[in-house]
UniProtKB/TrEMBL annotation:
<dbReference type="InterPro" id="IPR006143">
    <property type="entry name" value="RND_pump_MFP"/>
</dbReference>
<feature type="domain" description="CzcB-like C-terminal circularly permuted SH3-like">
    <location>
        <begin position="399"/>
        <end position="459"/>
    </location>
</feature>
<feature type="domain" description="CusB-like beta-barrel">
    <location>
        <begin position="317"/>
        <end position="392"/>
    </location>
</feature>
<dbReference type="InterPro" id="IPR058790">
    <property type="entry name" value="BSH_CusB"/>
</dbReference>
<feature type="domain" description="CusB-like barrel-sandwich hybrid">
    <location>
        <begin position="201"/>
        <end position="311"/>
    </location>
</feature>
<dbReference type="InterPro" id="IPR058792">
    <property type="entry name" value="Beta-barrel_RND_2"/>
</dbReference>
<dbReference type="InterPro" id="IPR051909">
    <property type="entry name" value="MFP_Cation_Efflux"/>
</dbReference>
<dbReference type="GO" id="GO:0060003">
    <property type="term" value="P:copper ion export"/>
</dbReference>
<dbReference type="Pfam" id="PF25919">
    <property type="entry name" value="BSH_CusB"/>
</dbReference>
<dbReference type="GO" id="GO:0015679">
    <property type="term" value="P:plasma membrane copper ion transport"/>
</dbReference>
<dbReference type="InterPro" id="IPR058649">
    <property type="entry name" value="CzcB_C"/>
</dbReference>
<dbReference type="Pfam" id="PF25975">
    <property type="entry name" value="CzcB_C"/>
</dbReference>
<comment type="similarity">
    <text>Belongs to the membrane fusion protein (MFP) (TC 8.A.1) family.</text>
</comment>
<keyword id="KW-0406">Ion transport</keyword>
<dbReference type="GO" id="GO:0030288">
    <property type="term" value="C:outer membrane-bounded periplasmic space"/>
</dbReference>
<dbReference type="GO" id="GO:0022857">
    <property type="term" value="F:transmembrane transporter activity"/>
</dbReference>
<dbReference type="GO" id="GO:0046914">
    <property type="term" value="F:transition metal ion binding"/>
</dbReference>
Length: 484
């Protein structure tokens, strides 16, 4: 029979339902026949499709019931949809298991697993797949039909260590960081106001009644230099004392009286040299600074003690800042402070804390802090608003970890140590200062250790679950000596 005739007969038999006959009598399968027809005769036929292997039958007890359409709706008991369809039972072998190793192939006790380098690892025992405190020396299944997991030599751990498979570490996004020594600073930012240094303000006044004879061309806001003439005054009391000095040059009481009236020493020396009493005496600026007030007017009468000029030195200013009550513990006298003013964007000035006022404002719950701020080029002015940044903390490097590594329960602080090979150990620590994304660890860690900074809450939850399950386990049976 020719190949064409054979193919025609074969296709006719298939069309007549003869596929079962061919398969039952050891003849070529339908797939083989179609492939031969396509390659040998050049006919266009659909490509052969490999048969799908049968799916393993579900095993184990029913653990829950799922919506028949695959929706994420689950029930612990049999249930129906609103249109009357039954929920699909899910057996133990169909459930997703995240607490097993990545290799699903079961390992028996008689099959040691090869480790890196060719050596084999010995199986010590088998543990419950759900994390229950139950072990077995031989392979077994739990009540749901799940295989107990082997524990190899070197993998055993104490009650606090958590063992996680590499696949689960990757899925949960675990990240670690190295414990280092570093300086921990927390910038404290508070508002402030520039003020004059009270110790650098001077008043020009006479100590006796006087008349203003002449006032220099100086007004409020002008800058003056030390010993620059400001005002000339005539005082009858000063002139009377000067006349006694000239009449009795050896009499020390007259000179002392002029000094008590605040007459400058150089003016007294000029009187003694010229033997003349000037009609008016010139008063000069006692320091470099800015004229804050001018009260002197030519021809006016000034009583003893009246202010003629008020001069302030602005080469050093104060910044008065209000620190919240809960931050007072981190503020110390002598700490460096960075100051910025709105009038000079981009410029920063450095000062230090001079005084912490011993009182808390009852309304704002803040305490005033005084900062001494040099102003060499006199660009800073009193009453300017300032943004104050206080560098709290010590300049000494300390053991520190990222803030994300700390799990704070409110009563204790814990970090998770990465011990390698998927092992994580919770470690209680004592914390100190915080700042720039790090926190000081005063007790519990050493530099160089690895701590978990991401997904640590998931690992901590698993550790707590393990501890809780172990606490519920029955205590081991006591063996009485002499009994089997």
């Amino acid at each position: 029979m020719s190949r064409s005739a054979w193919l025609a007969a074969t296709l006719a038999a298939l069309a007549a339902g003869g596929a079962g006959y061919w398969a039952g009598h050891g003849r070529p399968s339908v797939t083989v026949v179609l492939e031969r027809a396509r390659t040998e005769l050049g006919l266009w036929l659909p490509p052969a499709v490999a048969p799908v292997p049968p799916t393993a039958a579900p095993r184990g007890p029913v653990v829950y019931y799922q919506d028949p359409d695959g929706q994420p709706v689950y029930r612990l008991e049999p249930a129906r949809t609103p249109d009357g369809r039954d929920f699909r039972p899910v057996q133990a072998s169909e459930d997703v298991r995240f607490d097993t190793d990545d290799d699903p192939t079961p390992v028996s006790a008689a099959e040691p697993v090869a480790a890196a380098g060719g050596a084999s690892r010995k199986i010590l025992y088998y543990r419950n797949p759900m994390g229950l405190p139950d072990t077995s020396p031989v392979p077994k299944k739990d009540s749901m039909g799940m295989d107990y997991l082997p524990v190899y030599a070197g993998e055993e751990s104490d009650g606090s260590t958590v063992k996680i498979s590499p696949g689960k570490i990757q899925r949960t996004g675990v990240r670690t960081a190295t414990v280092t020594r570093q300086v921990v600073h927390r910038p404290l930012r508070v508002p402030g106001t520039l003020q004059l240094d009270e110790r650098r303000v001077t008043v020009v006044a006479t100590r006796s009644d006087a008349f203003v004879d002449h006032v220099a061309s100086v007004t409020t806001g002008d800058r003056v230099r030390k010993d620059q003439p400001l005002v000339a005054v005539y005082s009858p009391e000063i002139n009377a004392a000067a006349a006694q000095l000239i009449a009795n040059p050896g009499f020390d009481g007259s000179r002392r009286r002029l000094q008590n009236l605040n007459v400058p020493d150089e003016v007294i020396a000029e009187m003694e040299r010229t033997r003349r009493v000037p009609m008016a005496i010139s008063w000069t600026a006692p320091r470099d600074g800015v004229v804050l007030q001018r009260a002197a007017i030519e021809g006016m009468k000034a009583a003893a003690g009246d202010t003629l000029f008020r001069i302030g030195d602005i080469s050093l200013l104060w910044v008065l800042a209000d620190v919240p009550e809960y931050d007072l513990g981190s503020v110390k006298i002598g700490q460096l402070v960075t100051v910025r003013v709105r009038a000079l964007p981009g410029r920063t000035f450095t000062g230090k804390i001079g005084v912490i006022y011993p009182q808390v404002n009852r309304d704002t719950r803040t305490t005033r802090v005084r900062i001494e701020l040099p102003n060499p080029d006199s660009v800073l002015l009193p009453e300017m608003y300032a943004e104050v940044e206080i560098a709290t903390g010590s300049d000494t490097p300390v053991i520190a970890v990222p803030e994300d590594a700390v799990i704070d329960t409110g009563t204790r602080q814990v970090v998770l140590l990465d011990q390698g090979d998927g092992r994580f150990e919770p470690r209680e620590v004592t914390l100190g200062a915080r700042g720039n994304g790090a926190v000081e660890v005063r007790k519990g860690l050493e530099a160089g250790a690895q701590v978990v900074t991401a997904a640590n809450f998931l690992i901590d939850a698993e550790s707590n679950l393990k501890a809780a399950l172990q606490s519920m386990a029955a205590p081991p049976a006591q063996t009485v000596e002499g009994t089997p």
